[in-house]
């Protein structure tokens, strides 16, 4: 059961990071947020990775994929993954099912 929830938590984490990156992109398009580097790389030459292909549409819809991300999009995506993912998956010590039992009377 733990592996199921870890997997779904990871998928939700990637989904939320993609939403944040897309929000940054839309703010840049609107002129509200500045753009220092407009495209870090350009993978639009690969048809399978563009939004014209089914795989590109799936990646864009689920994970916020962009074949030409800006620097701010990448920083938002990776920053969210590192900060929230670190807080989510950081182990705070051994988890024992007996750790939460009531104290015994002397």
Which oligomerization state do the chains in this entry correspond to? Answer: single chain
pLDDT averaged residue by residue: 83
The low-confidence parts are none
Number of helices: 3
Rounded to an integer in angstroms, the radius of gyration calculated over CA atoms is 20 Å
**Would you report the number of β strands?**
0
In what range is the share of β-strand residues? under 5%
The biggest sheet, with number of strands, parallel, antiparallel or mixed sense and barrel status, is: none
Distance between the termini: 36 Å
Helical amount: 40-55%
Order of helices and strands: HHH
Which outline best applies? elongated
In terms of structural class, how would the helical and strand content be classed?
Answer: mainly alpha
What does this structure look like?
By secondary structure, the chain is mostly helical. 55% of the residues lie in helices and 0% in strands. It has 3 helices and no strands. It has helices spanning 2-30, 54-63, 71-89. α1 (2-30) runs antiparallel to α3. The radius of gyration is 20 Å and the shape is elongated. It starts with a helix and ends in a 17-residue tail after the last helix. The model has no long low-confidence stretch (mean pLDDT 83).
């Amino acid at each position: 059961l733990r592996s199921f929830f870890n997997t779904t938590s990871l998928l939700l984490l990637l989904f939320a990071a993609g939403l944040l990156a897309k929000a940054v992109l839309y703010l840049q398009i609107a002129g509200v947020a500045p753009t220092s580097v407009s495209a870090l790389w350009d993978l639009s030459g690969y048809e399978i990775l563009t939004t014209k292909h089914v795989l590109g549409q799936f990646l864009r819809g689920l994970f916020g994929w962009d074949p030409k991300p800006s620097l701010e999009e990448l920083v938002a995506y990776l920053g969210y993954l590192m900060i929230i993912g670190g807080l989510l998956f950081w182990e705070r010590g051994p988890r024992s099912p007996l750790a939460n039992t009531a104290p015994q009377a002397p």
